[in-house]
Write a structure and sequence with these properties.
463 residues; alpha/beta; 5-stranded mixed β-sheet; two-stranded parallel sheet; disordered C terminus
């Protein structure tokens, strides 16, 4: 004998103690009730009327009209049915009817709070009817007028609350109807299943309508944002294009300044040493400015141009090239009449380029949107020599023809406005009564030299 006890000792547990099944079920039930209480106690946008985001003022008033249309007939009907048909006391009938119908007006702005009041009143009303003789062979626990008011409330609730809240309301309604069967009066017609099914259908329909409206609203918002982004991108592209063209114009003048300043000591004899140093400084500054400008504006070059053609070296066009542009447009099937000044007009490079591009964009719009339309192009300096008028007018096509493009990004008009704004001019565009279109730009001209300017020059440099 060893003296050990014959009864085996329990071995220590090495793993977690497993919770009994009834405790797990109890904990899950408490968690479900907690979630249910949170969903039923957290309204969405309280105080905001239904359909408040709709643009039409008539649709914004519609929830108030519907709530009033349900409340006014349901209140006296409920009082009458409860007191006469079910035999309930008159005062209690009036109190229950008021609590079951008047909160429908509150449902326009706070549907979840209205549901708490109406649901509690319906449950209290069902308990009050259990001891009445009039409940025999009648609907219970939800009389017909209570079902109608409750369904109207479900519509308002589904248009505001999220799906989890709607599910909680539906389940609470079903549980209340199921528990009511414990107190079912003898001989009554149970309506809890009908109420449960109709409530689910109404909530699902309302939630579907709300989600569809939200999707359409988000789609409209996205289209608006996309349109704004597209307009902004078009504007940036046109500005980049203008910057590239102006780079070529300015680069030409800067190159001329550099060459003239660097070659001045060799072209002009007898220049003092200080003047040579000044010319050298001017040439160095011009070279640095040209290199810096090319670095800053080089990012505006398209990748395709950099990869294939390198920097643009083609001279920029002006009004002298308008006849060639018009000739190409005529070959495209658009009859164009061109009127240019009889005498050459001295234009700044930016103005000359802007005038050409405005005519180019206008004729391109005619080809795209009104093929075959007779068009007149005129470039006319004002009598006082202060402005240059660029006018492009097209009438409606003589023969009906489908436009090459029915919609556009507005790239041409944006480009015209940017070019005109760049040179401090003005632009007027718009349709004509006969179905045509008009583009009129006023561009500034450099001041003409005159006696006054010569006199001021002499005064500024006295001998």
């Amino acid at each position: 004998m060893t003296g050990r006890s014959s009864t085996p000792e329990p071995e220590p547990a090495h793993g977690p103690v497993r919770e009994p099944a009834h405790q797990r079920a109890l904990r899950a039930a408490r968690q479900a009730l907690r979630v249910l209480a949170v969903e039923l106690g957290t309204p969405t946008e309280p105080g905001t009327p239904l359909l408040d985001s709709v643009r039409s003022p008539w649709l914004r008033r519609l929830p108030y009209v519907v709530a009033f249309a349900f409340t006014v007939p349901l209140l006296p009907t409920t009082i009458t049915v409860l007191s006469h048909d079910y035999g309930l006391d008159g005062g209690l009938s009036g109190a229950l009817a008021t609590a079951q119908t008047v909160p429908l007006l509150l449902a326009v702005t706070r549907p979840l709070q209205a549901w708490w009041v109406i649901f509690a009143a319906d449950v209290i009303g069902a308990l009050a009817l259990t001891g009445e003789d009039g409940v025999v062979e009648r609907a219970w626990p939800w009389p017909p007028m209570e079902i109608v008011g409750y369904l109207a409330l479900m519509l308002a609730l589904s248009l505001r609350e999220r799906r989890r809240t709607l599910t909680a309301v539906w389940l609470t309604t079903g549980v209340a109807g199921l528990l009511s069967q414990v107190f079912t009066p003898e001989g009554s017609n149970s309506t809890w299943v009908l109420m449960f099914v109709l409530t689910g259908v109404m909530l699902m329909m309302g939630a579907t309508l709300r989600e569809r409206g939200d999707a359409q609203r988000k789609l409209i918002e996205q289209e608006t944002i996309s349109e704004a982004e597209r307009a902004r991108r078009t504007l940036l592209e046109e500005r980049a294009r203008i910057a590239r063209e102006l780079h070529d114009v300015v680069a030409h003048h800067m190159s001329v300044i550099t060459v003239q300043a660097a070659s001045a000591p060799y072209r002009i004899s007898g220049i003092p040493r200080e003047a040579e140093d000044e010319f050298g400084s001017i040439a160095a500054t011009a070279r640095e400015s040209l290199a810096e400008m090319r670095r800053l504006l080089g990012v505006l070059r398209s990748e395709e141009a950099v990869q294939h053609d390198g920097p643009e070296k083609t001279p920029q066009p002006g009004i002298a090239m308008l006849p060639k542009l018009v000739e190409g447009t005529v070959r495209a099937g658009v009859p164009v009449e061109l009127a240019l000044p009889e005498e050459p007009v001295a234009l700044e490079p930016a103005v000359d380029l802007s005038a050409y591009r405005i005519v180019q964009e206008a004729l391109a719009n005619v080809v795209r949107h009104a093929p075959g339309a007779p068009t007149r192009v005129s470039v006319t300096p004002a009598a006082d020599g202060a402005r240059l008028t660029v006018l492009v007018v097209n009438s409606a096509p003589s023969a009906p023809s489908a436009p090459l493009e029915t919609t556009g990004t507005g790239h041409g008009l944006i480009g015209m406005r940017e070019r005109v704004r760049l040179v401090d001019g003005s632009l007027d565009t718009g349709p004509l009564p006969d179905g045509g279109f008009r583009v009129a730009a006023q561009l500034p001209l450099p001041p003409l030299p005159g006696p006054a300017s010569s006199l001021s020059a002499k005064d500024s440099h006295p001998e």
